[in-house]
Amino acid sequence: MKFPKLPNVNEEVIQMNLYLVQHAEPKRKEEDPQRPLSEKGKADIKKIADFIVKHTNIRVKSIMHSGKLRAHQTAEILAEYLNPPEEIKEVKGLEPLADPSIWVNHLIGVKEDMMLVGHLPHLMKLSSYLLCQDVNKKIVDFHMGGIVCLNKDEGGIWSVQWMLTPEIL
Question: Distances from the Cα of 82 to the Cαs of 19, 107, 115, in angstroms?
Answer without folding.
Answer: 13, 22, 11
